[in-house]
Amino acid sequence: xxxxxxxxxxxxxxxxxxxxxxxxxxxxxxxxxxxxxxxxxxxxxxxxxxxxxxxxxxxxxxxxxxxxxxxxxxxxxxxxxxxxxxxxxxxxxxxxxxxxxxxxxxxxxxxxxxxxxxxxxxxxxxxxxxxxxxxxxxxxxxxxxxxxxxxxxxxxxxxxxxxxxxxxxxxxxxxxxxxxxxxxxxxxxxxxxxxxxxxxxxxxxxxxxxxxxxxxxxxxxxxxxxxxxxxxxxxxxxxxxxxxxxxxxxxxxxxxxxxxxxxxxxxxxxxxxxxxxxxxxxxxxxxxxxxxxxxxxxxxxxxxxxxxxxxxxxxxxxxxxxxxxxxxxxxxxxxxxxxxxxxxxxxxxxxxxxxxxxxxxxxxxxxxxxxxxxxxxxxxxxxxxxxxxxxxxxxxxxxxxxxxxxxxxxxxxxxxxxxxxxxxxxxxxxxxxxxxxxxxxxxxxxxxxxxxxxxxxxxxxxxxxxxxx
Length: 469
What we know:
This protein has 469 residues and is of the alpha+beta class. The chain has 6 helices and 24 strands.
């Protein structure tokens, strides 16, 4: 990232993406990385690492212990669960209805019917063309001129508070949860992850790392619904910075959208439910609690590929293949997208699975990024035009190591060596916390940084600029 580059490794335990992310070697220094699908077993003395659930070897090709930390997992041929697709079509599709024969109609009616049919046909054609143009506002398939306002999303909670059981949430959300099967390293279906239905226009939300390899290679991507029906999908746009992607499938317009809630209303200790396809096991439901809120974490293989999220932390079981699946409250509303887990690094395959520490991208960020992608096929993020240290600090703030010429930070008067201790009055402990705080805002907004320089504290206003990513 051009204005918040990192130098060194982050303090604390590393993390892993929970779904398809280009595999990376384990970094004992403590960065958040995704392990390679076929890496050798890790030393059990390796410190815990944070990694988004990601690709893993197919269950029938390697023993269960070979799975890496949560992320997308290679999908075994035929899958683990659900009904297979029927030859020549998708299972579960309704048969065409046959009209019944009626009595004879007077001759004068037919010309009238013909004229009405012509008028309705013309109007239908016009309406259809308008809808088509709205869904294809430019050359990018699946884009929508009005973003989220131009598609049919759902925000009303499907469940009343008194009905809020895990079983009721599972009944409500499983039809809106899908498995993602994507090409990985040239292998069709080499990785699997999860996602959820965004609207009635066939858009699906998932993690970027689930489909990144397929998107780069132009490889095939499929979504699989609860009944095992498979639909071809394409990438509308994706954001490596926020680890989010939006897919579209013209065949999946009949799937029920998930209801979008608000992570800001969550309380620590509240019950949440995670949906997805861990280890290739489709339509899996796990439950736990909200362990913490606004937890700054980073996932990725390097400074240039890392995503930074102000995450919802949960102990609901999340494993490889859960990436991109929804985290849901007991009202049946999506409050986050499962993206990363903490692992001890001591598993038989080099990375252990769930240890009760998982992270989800807040749904508020999902709304913003999805809206941008639907409008333009791209997502943007805020920058200040400075590089910060992300490792080896004592929790007293984020030290600026370089200020980019003509950037927002330079314009505001920030200098190399300044230590940022707060953003808009909220404490900043290190470089990762600063980056997460900045990215929780939007380009064009003004933030107030509390800065220590030469033993003195000062307040600096910075107008955030924008970059695509």
